[in-house]
Design goal:
mainly alpha
Length: about 180
């Protein structure tokens, strides 16, 4: 949920449909360029992650839009000065952002490269993601890939087993019989 005056939206203009993945980010930057923005430490929305979701299946698009926003920032009259002042932090943030999406899309090699670029521009930006950086690096190793595959297979088996037990129990609820799961 976003709260702002209607006039702020009208002054900034509406969503730029040239952006397919980060159109809301670009809109917020336009709103922030002429209005005071206050950070609220609370969640107002959440993302859905499933194999067909854009944030998983089309991670490349998020990266491209992030760097298109960087190019726009360089030329926008209201934001050029800010970009020039904070260039390294902004570029580090864009590469970190891109790396996170690439990791979500299982493009770990490219993600690691983007984390390195983020670190080069502004090391503190990457420090928050050190476990993800480590995972993207270690995912090159065959043993890590096997361990991950084993973990995912066990998790899938466990989830499938739990679902089967739940379905059986739902179907047999009317006669009072329950499957013994061995769980306490």
């Amino acid at each position: 949920m976003y709260l702002f005056r209607k006039q702020a939206l009208e002054d900034a203009g509406y969503l730029d449909l040239e952006y397919h993945y980060l159109l809301d980010h670009q809109l917020w930057l336009r709103i922030a360029s002429n209005n005071k923005i206050q950070h609220v430490k609370d969640f107002f929305a959440a993302a859905r992650f499933h194999p067909d979701a854009k944030n998983i299946a089309q991670t490349e698009g998020f990266s491209k839009d992030a760097f298109r926003i960087i190019e726009w920032l360089k030329t926008d009259p209201d934001l050029t000065r800010i970009f020039a002042k904070d260039r390294r932090k902004i570029l580090a943030g864009a590469f970190r952002f891109s790396a996170r999406y690439l990791m979500d899309g299982r493009e770990n090699t490219r993600a690691f490269g983007h984390y390195l670029k983020s670190f080069w521009y502004y090391p503190p930006a990457v420090m928050k993601d050190l476990p993800r950086v480590g995972y993207s690096l270690l995912s090159f190793l065959p043993a890590v890939k096997r361990k991950k595959a084993d973990y995912l297979q066990k998790r899938l088996s466990r989830l499938t087993e739990d679902k089967m037990i739940d379905t059986y129990n739902e179907l047999s609820d009317h006669n009072g019989s329950q499957m013994n799961t061995g769980k306490t």
